[in-house]
Amino acid sequence: MAASATRADALVHARGLTKRFDKLVAVDAIDFDVQRGEAFGFLGPNGAGKTSTMRMIGCVSSPSGGELRVLGLDPVIDGPRIRARLGVVPQADTLDMELRVDENLLTYARYFDIPRDVARARTQELLEFVQLKDRAKDEVEPLSGGMKRRLTIARALVNEPGLLLLDEPTTGLDPQARHLVWDRLYRLKQQGVTIVLTTHYMDEAEQLCDRLVVMDKAKIVASGSPRSLIDQYSTREVLELRFPIDAAPALDGKLDGIAERVEVLPDRVLLYAHDGEAAASAVHQRGLRPESTLVRRSTLEDVFLRLTGRSLIE
Amino acid sequence: MIAVLARRRPVQLPAAGRAAHLVERNAILYRREWTLIVSGFFEPLLYLLAIGYGVGALVGSAVTLNGRAIPYAAFVAPAMMASSAMNGAIYETAFNFFYKLKYVKLYDAILATPLGVADVALGEVTWALIRGTLYALGFIVVMAALGLILSPWAILAVPASMLIGFTFAAVGTAASTFVRTWQDFDLVLIVMIPLFLFSATFYPITLYPGPLQVFIQLTPLYHGVDLLRSLTTGSIGPSILFDLLYLVVLGSAALLVAGARLERLLLK
């Protein structure tokens, strides 16, 4: 009973969802549900299968196996009906370079069969929303990366979608531009738009996602809220130590017992402990003299490292 | 087996309403860049003036066509009209289409809307046809003004020109799905220029030796030229039925190839 209720409410429902390209398995039998009103993230390194999953949800790539329902419909049969209610921000901007900024939104609205006067009004609103109103009549090419991204987000909103799919919304943007995008996405979430996004940035996932799944090598390796994932797979704090390069081999065993877990990376050593400061003093008491010490809270990066043994961005 | 078949994506059939929005997009663009359209019309017109009249004056006034002497300019003009239909269709579908397909990824963006691949193909071919029809209308008016229309059958030259446009638009679309870089377009030109020069455009096909005549008859522009020339000069023979069949079959086959290729490229 409970299972069928979940399925009816979920905007996206996937069971055993699989995508194969010839012999390569890009998505390997993953299960997930996206509930109405939440921001749901796919976190993982490049090549983990995030984009393939997004393309299947966006009805531009048909599943090789498993079950997928989007907005309660079957993407294989009802592609056009589903796409009419989706907003899609693809990884590359794919803006119409031959048209001006406002024409990009107008023509895109027309693809959704939105009447011209409504399209015009919505174009104005959306340009305002993404702070591009003064660029309305400009060419697209000279816009900065952040502006193009905002225009792409505005374009994804012309049909007032109930479900917004964003594939790496802020990859390649400078910090200021990223914060502006995050702010807009946060506002959309407040307005009740359901958001599904992929990212390989921890801070983005923590900022935006209510719930997320961690993907690695075509599979989901963990799922939950950012907080619960950190609680489950990491400690409260992390002590980061940097040693002179030649000192690293000499550490062998000297850090044992200080932390719950020790992770030796090429450039630094991570000590996972409930109390980072206490761990730092313990390190000093043992006569170790790192070049720098930093105590920070655990992030999803640590979760990912724990789950896969690798950093997210390589 | 049934399960496997059920999983196959049902082909999303084209819908005129959806495809029309892509035509609308192209119209917005060309409202600004109308010079691009006009240039495609002038090229064959200039050839007509230079060769039809210039060279025509040198070679004497008449060419014998099906045992009938007709002015050289009236002989060349329908060939230029057919070339214009070919050029318009190829420029639109090969070059513009490639730019939109691979370079700016326009169709990736469009396929995220209710439009499907078939709508995109229909929309682009329709647009190419509209552009080709404008060329044909313009050209037929010029021919009438210059007194180069020798038969009332010429009224059918406009729809015939649209058919030529359709065939080359489909071929151009199919070809551009195989193109990887801009350099590959040199190949398109390497094919187009001989077609323009040797498809019995400037002299009758009977000037070729027998085997070469057969070869020329296998190429597409020859049939466009033969069709339009038959109509504007009024020398209607059974050959036009073969021309029509050739253009329809080639165009339809190319459209199927283009559709299948686009599915593979865009809906991976």
Q: Can you describe this structure?
A:
The complex is a heterodimer of chains A (314) and B (268). Chain A contains 11 helices and 13 strands. Chain A is α/β, with parallel strands linked by helices. Chain B has one domain. The radius of gyration of chain B is 20 Å and the shape is elongated. Chains A and B meet through helix 3 and helix 4 of A and helix 2 and helix 5 of B.
Compact overview of the structure:
The complex is a heterodimer of chains A (314) and B (268). By secondary structure, chain A is of the alpha/beta class. Chain A has 11 helices and 13 strands.
**Span of the ends, CA to CA of chain A:** 44 Å
The number of domains of chain A is: 2
Number of helices of chain A: 11
- What's the main sheet of chain B like? 2 strands, antiparallel
CATH homologous superfamily label of the largest domain in chain A: P-loop containing nucleotide triphosphate hydrolases
- The count of DSSP E runs of length 2 or more, i.e. the number of strands of chain A, is 13
Main pleated sheet of chain A: 6 strands, mixed
How are helices and strands ordered from N to C of chain B? HHHEEHHHHHHHH
How widely separated are the two ends of chain B?
A: 22 Å
Which terms summarize this structure?
heterodimer; A: 314 residues; alpha/beta; Rossmann fold; Alpha-Beta Plaits; 2 domains; 6-stranded mixed β-sheet; 11 helices; 13 strands; 36% helix; 25% strand; disordered N terminus; B: 268 residues; mainly alpha; two-stranded antiparallel sheet; 2 strands; 75% helix
Question: Which helices and strands, and how do they pair?
Answer:
The complex is a heterodimer of chains A (314) and B (268).
Chain A: H1 2-9, E1 12-21, E2 24-34, E3 39-43, H2 50-57, E4 65-70, H3 75-83, E5 86-89, H4 101-111, H5 116-129, H6 145-156, E6 163-167, H7 175-190, E7 194-199, H8 202-208, E8 211-216, E9 219-224, H9 226-233, E10 237-242, E11 261-264, E12 269-273, H10 276-285, E13 292-297, H11 300-308
Parallel strand pairs in A: 3-7, 3-8, 5-6, 6-7
Antiparallel strand pairs in A: 1-2, 1-4, 8-9, 10-12, 10-13, 11-12
Helix pairs in contact in A: 4-5, 9-11
Chain B: H1 2-7, H2 16-32, H3 34-59, E1 62-65, E2 68-71, H4 72-103, H5 106-110, H6 117-145, H7 157-176, H8 185-198, H9 210-218, H10 220-233, H11 239-266
Antiparallel strand pairs in B: 1-2
